[in-house]
Design brief:
This protein has about 110 residues and is mainly α. The chain folds into two domains: about 50 residues; about 45 residues.
């Protein structure tokens, strides 16, 4: 069998062999074919999953997407921003509470010292 390689492919093949990545051209080809078979099997599994899932999505089961997914994502993000703001307000109030507690404690310590 005759295989024609581009100059670049030949150079890469020699580099891989010289670097010891493969013991021989046959090893390299076996590795490449195994990788190709693995990719093909993965694509076949994905294709089968897509074929089996046809019709699984029903619009009536997802009214939140009635105005499109982009609109739904914007609403989610807006809600997330509101939640973040509420958490930040809570954190700030906790810091204020802690500062007030420390001031009270400091005042009590000063009264005891007097």
């Amino acid at each position: 069998m005759t295989v024609e390689l581009t100059e670049e492919t030949g150079r890469l093949l020699r580099e891989h062999l010289q670097a010891g990545h493969f013991k021989s051209v046959d090893d390299l080809l076996a590795s490449a074919l195994a990788e190709l078979a693995s990719r093909n099997a993965k694509l076949n599994r994905q294709r089968l999953a897509m074929q089996e899932s046809v019709g699984a999505w029903k619009d009536e089961d997802h009214p939140e997407l009635a105005h499109g997914s982009a609109s739904w994502v914007r609403e989610l993000r807006a809600g997330s921003n509101k939640r973040t703001e509420r958490l930040e307000q809570h954190r700030c109030s906790m810091e204020i509470d802690e500062q007030q507690r420390r001031l009270v404690e400091f005042g009590e310590q000063n009264r005891r010292a007097d």
